[in-house]
């Protein structure tokens, strides 16, 4: 029974391999406040910056809201591969409103300064209430493949 | 220790039908009889524990298992609040068929979503939890889409829900399947295009005795601990017997015998479910409900409940929530005022410029785009081009202002022509001839 524990610690070092292992590397402590500084996030678009493996998971270093808590639709600043990049939150583990989806991982889409997405496709389902913020993130919604 | 507990459980189940007095007598007997009795092997052990409060829970009626949100929690609130809520729940259930389902059943829920394409949002998933009481009753559906686990907590009595369909009706070994979050993804994956499976012929709901394999620890909760009482996990694959024993440290076996935690709902259930059945069987007569009430329960239909459910949420709402007479009066009043003002303005303009050609191009100006109008005007007017341009510009400005200043992109022109307009107006106030001179 020590073997699964060993494998668990080993997979903790590897990032960006199979999806099942990726699920296990992220924080499993109870969710207190959706996304804040130092949360490890999962980049869900197909940009090279988000998908190339690195020995450190992408972390949030700043949340562009009044309080430091980021929910779906908020912009954050990530530290990926030793560089700073802005991103948009498209799903978090914290349960939100009733009737709105809750994801099993904190999902994030890389974004430029002007709001254009870095990648060209988002495979993961996106919550539909993002459509309300049509003006800012219309391009992100355009590259999304499915909505939940 | 585990074996002892098991033995105790068996004993308790066998004693389910006995009354308190009988048990007490037996206990009296056991203390009077000396302990090292040779009869212990044949008869059940004489030491009988006090009646478990769980006994009462086990005699839960079928109706309460099916619809647990009708039974109010043990609180100090007035039962009138719960009876009011039940009335509303029954009214909603007459409109929307909420079928019987349990944790572990696979459901498909169609929800009205203003942000979704086609206004409807369909989600298929396995029900992992049924919570809440009264109108706030919820159920959580879980599914894995594109390797991403998604859970949605639906409010059962929310008017946004258009239909709840049970694709597979079954029970599991536990009431709460939250541990599926830490189980292998195959156990939470449900095909979104699944067809509804036919229910079993007998009235009983099939119990799926599947034991789920878990992902490696750490889990989001310590599912192995006795406080969750989970039967549906394969602990033998993920934990050693030594770990299982260690976990029993958190066991609280005295809680089963805590009589203060007893909540006997049998009589309450009988009352509630008989009332609910009566209400449901009553035909929903169309009656003139007050409009305020209609607006509050806006998902409730006043017409025949067998009417088909409409597709679009908006049309449904509009049909079901008619405009109140007060609002209707306001609408009509507003319309009347607009019409009257328009007529007055037209009359004023006509009196100011009685010239036929001017009237003709005024009527041609009804579309709001002033630039296009100017072109039309230029082509229509009979006067010299140079004068016509100037006058037509001012004329269009005036009429645009009269029609509510719809020429938004003419701000610069407005500023330039303000003085000209004033001059024109002053001149127009004189005789007809002067007006004709102005325009030609």
UniProtKB/TrEMBL annotation, chain A:
Q: Which UniProt keywords apply?
A: Mitochondrion, Ribonucleoprotein, Ribosomal protein, Transit peptide
- Annotated SMART domains: Ribosomal_L14
Q: Which CDD domains match?
A: Ribosomal_uL14 (cd00337)
Q: What molecular function terms (GO) are annotated for this protein?
A: structural constituent of ribosome
Q: Which domain of life is it from?
A: Eukaryota
The record's annotation in Pfam families points to:
Ribosomal_L14
Q: Where in the cell is it found?
A: Mitochondrion
A GO cellular component annotated for this chain's UniProt record is: mitochondrial inner membrane
In its UniProt record, which GO terms are filed under biological process? Answer: translation
Show the InterPro entries listed in the entry.
Ribosomal_uL14 (IPR000218), Ribosomal_uL14_sf (IPR036853)
Q: What is its main location?
A: mitochondrion
SUPFAM superfamilies in the record, alphabetically? Ribosomal protein L14 (SSF50193)
Q: Which HAMAP family match?
A: Ribosomal_uL14 (MF_01367)
The similarity annotation says: Belongs to the universal ribosomal protein uL14 family.
User: What name is this protein filed under?
Assistant: Large ribosomal subunit protein uL14m
Automatic annotation (TrEMBL), chain B:
Which regions are flagged for Acidic residues bias?
408-428
Q: What Pfam families does the annotation carry? A: Ribosomal_L19
Whether Isomerase counts among this entry's keywords is no
Stored Gene3D superfamilies: 2.30.30.790
Question: A GO CC term?
Answer: mitochondrial large ribosomal subunit
Q: Where in the cell is it found?
A: Mitochondrion
SUPFAM superfamilies linked to this entry: Translation proteins SH3-like domain
Sequence segments annotated as region (Disordered): 28-52, 388-431
Q: Name one GO molecular function term.
A: structural constituent of ribosome
Residues spanning the membrane: 333-365
Query: Which terms under GO biological process does the entry name?
Result: translation
Give the highest taxon in the source lineage: Eukaryota
Q: What are the UniProt keywords, alphabetically?
A: Membrane, Mitochondrion, Ribonucleoprotein, Ribosomal protein, Transit peptide, Transmembrane, Transmembrane helix
Keyword Membrane included in the entry's annotation? yes
PANTHER family in the cross-refs: LARGE RIBOSOMAL SUBUNIT PROTEIN BL19M, RIBOSOMAL PROTEIN L19
State the similarity comment: Belongs to the bacterial ribosomal protein bL19 family.
Identify this protein by name: Large ribosomal subunit protein bL19m
